[in-house]
From TrEMBL:
The organism's taxonomic lineage, starting at the top: Bacteria, Bacillati, Bacillota, Bacilli, Bacillales
UniProt xrefs under Pfam families: Acetyltransf_1
Domain N-acetyltransferase per the UniProt entry, residue ranges: 3-159
Keywords: Acyltransferase, Transferase
Protein name per its UniProtKB record: N-acetyltransferase domain-containing protein
Tagged with keyword Acyltransferase: yes
SUPFAM superfamilies: Acyl-CoA N-acyltransferases (Nat)
Amino acid sequence: MELRLRTATWEDYDAVNTIIREGQEEHAEALPDRFAKLDHVVAMGWYRSFSDREDKEIIVAEIGQEVVGVAMLEMKQSPNYEALVPRKYAYLNELAVASVHQRQGIGKRLYQAAAEWARAREAESLELNVWEFNERALLFYASLGMLTLNRTLTTNLVK
């Protein structure tokens, strides 16, 4: 069947949540001190905040009538701080593909659609965060030409 990308609707909430929850569970297993295991990872209020806004978008990938992937993105501005050059960029909050549909080019298509959405809004860049343990995601984004911009370092102070 053919893959189709479209803007998400209210009816896609449960499917989107299920797909993102898979990634959340991977994160909770890798970093249980940082990530909780939840039934509803995507709060309904947050999901709703993406509807009917020019500066936010949820793109779903579907095969037939099944939602198999999702990208959630929004436009942002650099902080108003004189040491930073003012800039407008798109932030990819989530990019996830159902585990049974991974490695079929769906993530790449979602990423490309997110980049097109950002370009149409004159974003200077597309940015996202990836946790260091997530080697598959790091390799995936590197294969798309993304580069590391910065790193967050930590020291555990509790034994």
